[in-house]
Amino acid sequence: MSPPKIYAPNVHLFAYQLRKESDPQKDNLKELFKKGENILKEFGINQKIHIQDKPGYRVELSAQQTEDDASILFEKWSDSPITGIAYPVRVHDTFALALNVRRPEKNEQGIKTADVDIDFFKRLHPSECWMPSKVNASLGQTLLLTLWYTPEKTWQFWNSREDQKKLQSLADKCLRAFIPDKLETPPFYRSGELFGSPIFEYGIPDELENYCHVLVWVFVTPETDTKLQEEYPNLVDIFCYRAKIIQAYKLSRSVYKVLSHSYKEIKAEIAIVESLPDDKTLDATNLEELKKALKRIPSLNFSYVEFIRDLDNYRLPLKINLQNYKREIKLLQKKYPQEDLRFLENFSDENAHIFEEQIQADLDYFAKGSDLLEKALDAIRGRVEIEQAESDRNLQKTIQSVGFGIGAAGVVATSAPYWIDQNPEKINIDKPFTSTSLNTFTAVILFSFIAGLGAWGIASGWMYRKSFIAGVKGRLSGGIGNNKTQVSLPSSPGQPINTISQEPEAATNTTETKREDSARPHQ
User: Fold this and answer.
1) Per the record, which residues fall in region Disordered (predicted)?
2) Which of 383, 407, 441 is the last residue of a domain?
3) Is the model's pLDDT at 502 over the cut of 50?
């Protein structure tokens, strides 16, 4: 059985470039359209895309446009004639290029061109010129392949299950012929109907690594081709908002990875605070760790908050472009009230909606990390103040105890003349360092030292006993058996923050209150 023939195959590129406003690269007006000219050169067409920008939200940029047509026509007649159009436009802050290369339906004499094999799509893709890696548009692109399945341009019973399978098989073959063998073919995503003909989508929107969005549209009725030409500018806008939604979500995933790394650093800081003993005075090593944490946490928190702000900065553009996308679909539906536009609506109702919810869930989740950093900082400051106050109090007690000892020693030394025998005959004043005088002097010093040491010991013991009784009273007034509550970070971004309650005497029963994270699609 010979392979099926196709009629008038087309390739449409919808590529989008963000307009740069920064001084070093201000106004990259021609960057995207130069890439379009390079694609045409692959077909031997040296056509220039002359553009001229003007003020306005939506501006058609063709410098040679007429009142009826803003596109640029080009053609090359040979054994395999090639024609097409270039449609440059600016939508607000985005340059858009719709570039179409096709085998015409009629030749120069107006005679219908012959059907071709599916492999003709290979001739429409020289040097991989249509691939995202070659076009390299900053906001992404959509490739649309269109074809007629039969020369008669109609297929009345394509809605049957068997015919749908045949059509999808045809679309798969066309895509495999178009994508070079050495490159990976985008996976099939879904199928539907648009303007009365079946359309097949390839490329998974949330699989952002090397994402390539391709549509294969099989015309089975002339109305489809007519409406495509009429609504071509609207499709340029629809695919523009779609590309900006995808790009916003893609950039948000990059910020998400950075936030996840910072989140682990926060967990490490919280672990340091929680590892410090609560029931004893901290040593010099512990205090040094706290001082280092006091220096690290403010800087870490500042960066963390900046990353959260960056994540939120992608949520807002996604939301705005989603509204614009829905608006364009509504305008299209108003123009064609009988048309089924679910194929276009599915992206906004399913994919984009999930993207928006995902970013919001990430914002809600990571915001708790910043709150805990603030609490950790307050806890460290409080602990340092307590340790400093305790150190000052201990120093004061030591000074008081030493004072008691010195005072007692002074009293003993002063009272020595009254309790030591003062017999001048036994003390040789002229010879103070005789054995008799030395024994008396030593006795005074020794008794003074013993008295001072004893007074210091009694004073220290009394002060310790007083502090101990005050501490016990404080614990009793707080209630025996009260739980000690800690707030700890979850072990992974998919797990909520846990509250851990622990009995003060025997922490044997630990309960964790878990809650499922809000609808978080797989990253």
Assistant:
1) 483-523
2) 383
3) no
Whether 515 is in a domain gets the answer no
DSSP code per residue over 65-98: --SS--SEEEEE-SSS-EEEEEEEEEETTEEEEE
Phi, psi of 217 (to 5 degrees): -115, 115
- Does one domain contain both 91 and 222? yes
Q: Quick one: pLDDT at residue 304?
A: 84
- Name residue 16's beta-bridge partners: 96
Domain extent at residue 61: 5-230
pLDDT at 144: 98
pLDDT digits (tens, 9 = 90+) for 212-237: 999 999 998 889 999 999 999 999 99
Looking at the 3D structure of the chain, how many domains does it have? Answer: 2
- Could you say which of 383, 416, 438 is where a domain stops? 383
At residue 20, φ and ψ (nearest 5 deg) are -90, 135
Cα separation, 299 vs 292, whole angstroms: 12
Nearest-angstrom CA–CA distance, 448 and 454: 10
Domain-embedded: residue 466: no
How many angstroms separate the CA atoms of 288 and 270, rounded?
16
pLDDT at 70 over 90: no
